[in-house]
Design goal:
The structure is a homodimer.
Chain A: E1 3-5, H1 16-19, H2 25-32, E2 35-40, E3 45-47, E4 55-61, E5 64-69, E6 75-81, E7 101-104, E8 108-114, H3 115-124, H4 126-151, H5 155-171, E9 175-177, H6 182-189, H7 193-205, E10 209-212, E11 215-218, H8 221-230
Antiparallel strand pairs in A: 1-2, 2-8, 3-7, 4-8, 5-6, 5-7, 9-11, 10-11
Helix pairs in contact in A: 3-4, 5-8, 6-7
Chain A binds a DNA duplex (30 and 30 nucleotides) through helix 7.
DNA sequence: CGCGGCTTTGATGTTCATCAAGTAAAGTGG
DNA sequence: CCACTTTACTTGATGAACATCAAAGCCGCG
């Protein structure tokens, strides 16, 4: 269960500029009344598929996954989201219920902003409205790009893409701890757990990466990039 | 080359309610000044990847495809769009240039609405802004859903999905003329041209469909649906 | 008429999922 | 703390699904 914090205040928020830079102080004060911040441990469920959407979710710190459980019982991960990824916008405007579940894959701090309050701000502040449209549009472009390139890549290409994603987009380092289990990776890039393992081992044997459990370090990034684009 | 028509007027437009129902008459009159309607034949290019985005595109009638040409020279179709699909919103807010090309796959009438003019309306009319957000969100949900289900389906499932899409979403009939060549279908659902043909023939032999060139008629829709969900 | 593009079918090989089996790691209860 | 269960990880063998290659028929077009 998450620990709830309410004492933060949007006006001083370090992340204000990333989402709400088009709001003035009085609007931010208004927002404060409709906002709750929650701290989650790695591996906690934030929302379940089908839950009513009451809040717009914003990731302050950490990492979460959006996923659906298929008929076969396998999880399919739509997207991994980090701070500044506006995943909260996804179905917020088109649905009353979540079309997917959300769980943390690292310790995370999430901000819950009441939807009607946010909509009121959008309605009353056109510049803010345009800004939200911008950000939503960007988020969607990213997800679509990833998804489409996944479909047309072979398994090695997908693994390469994944390794580069965490290196370039999430951790900004060539060594990191994979926050996802092999099985979760399989669900994210649509392949079997066995093949995730097999290809990671292959990459290790070929000297592309070093690997110890979930510790990964990319040794030959150029070649990994080549595999990613070639696949 | 498209034939350009300017004499239409938004206030009387039959499609007004589908996009611009949150605008009043004076706002619609304003829009009229920044709008051009163009008529295209089947197979014409509307925009090329990389073109500057000057207008929001709205499909009044017809059918278009959004596609990217891959490094291998193969076209990958992101989406097929029909009237009321708000494809025009896709990168409009996040990019200055198109990330994909658009071509008509049937005779079509498109409405070009100047982007700065549209943004001004959004900025000044919060209710309209929220409405646009709704529609954009819905459009995105649809595309994402299709894309994700494509990835996790086998070839037979994908073909079944495609046949049902045109039957249920586009033509609302069990007999129709496929507007896409086999090669285009391949690019849309990420498989080879040969296998598109092979599986269509297979479906014919199994009595699921009748087929003469691009004329398709679905004979056993229940079974096609089963294949689509099972795949 | 002949060329090029689209379609179709068959043969072949590669890629990948599935099955099976074994090891390691991580809870769980007495 | 140790047996016990469960879950994650790993490797190999097999077969199914799919792409690729090759060849031939069809049709529109210059």
């Amino acid at each position: 269960m998450p620990e709830v914090i309410q004492k933060t205040n949007c006006t001083n928020c370090l992340f204000k500029s990333l989402v709400f830079n088009k709001l003035n102080d009085s609007e931010l004060d208004f927002l404060d009344q409709f906002k709750i911040e929650k701290i989650y441990q790695k591996g906690e469920i934030v929302v379940n598929e089908g839950d009513t959407i009451n809040d717009f979710l914003y990731i302050k710190t950490g990492l979460v996954k959006l996923f659906k459980t298929g008929l076969d019982g396998k999880d399919h991960i739509l997207s991994v989201a980090k701070p500044q990824d506006f995943i909260g916008f996804l179905s917020m405007f088109s649905n009353t219920n979540y079309q997917y579940s959300i769980a943390t894959i690292e310790n995370s701090t999430l901000c819950f902003i009441n939807v009607p309050a946010l909509k009121k701000l959008i309605e009353n502040n056109g510049v803010f409205a345009l800004d939200i449209l911008d950000k939503m549009s960007l988020a969607v472009d990213g997800i679509l790009d990833t998804r489409i390139s996944l479909c047309s890549r072979n398994l090695r290409g997908r693994i390469a893409l994944l390794l580069l994603y965490f290196s370039d987009e999430v951790y900004h380092k060539d060594e990191y701890i994979l926050p996802l289990a092999r099985k979760e990776i399989a669900g994210l890039i649509e392949m079997t757990t066995e093949n995730v393992i097999r290809i990671l081992s292959e990459f290790r044997h070929d000297g592309l990466i070093e690997m110890d459990g979930s510790e990964i370090s990319l040794l030959n990034k150029k070649l990994i990039e080549a595999i990613s684009t070639a696949g």
